[in-house]
Design goal:
- The protein is globular and about 55 Å long.
- It is of the alpha+beta class and 109 residues long.
- Strand 2 and strand 3 form a beta hairpin.
- A 3-stranded antiparallel sheet has the order 1-3-2.
- 53% of the residues lie in helices and 13% in strands.
- The chain has helices at 5-22, 25-34, 41-48, 52-64, 86-94, and strands at 39-40, 68-73, 76-81.
């Protein structure tokens, strides 16, 4: 059964939110680091090399998009990836090779 237009649009919007949440060097670094397991926010701050406010904004954006989950333990907050398939997705992106003349036409000259 085909998706309704509204359902398809919702799916597209959701995918765009997730991709946007990864589309920053610091957020991509956080995601790649969390592929090896959960990390404390203080470890992520050191990794990114930014102040805590900036790192917190990145983490909040990623969590709201559904990419990350977090758990408070004592005074520390630990972050982990919400899905295990992110590594597969990123490796798939690594296989994309932009070509200057991918379509074999001169339409893009």
């Amino acid at each position: 059964m085909p998706k309704s237009h509204s359902s398809q649009q919702d799916s597209i919007t959701r995918r765009v939110e997730v991709i946007k949440s990864l589309a920053h060097p610091s957020r991509m670094l956080i995601a790649e680091t969390l592929m090896s397991g959960e990390k404390c926010v203080c470890d992520l701050q050191v990794l990114v090399g930014a102040d805590m406010s900036t790192v917190s904004k990145h983490l909040t954006l990623m969590r709201k998009a559904g990419v990350l989950t977090c758990e408070k333990r004592g005074l520390n907050i630990y972050y982990s990836l919400a899905c295990t398939c992110l590594g597969t997705f990123l490796r798939c992106l690594d296989e994309l090779v932009p070509e200057v003349d991918a379509c074999g036409t001169s339409c893009c000259d």
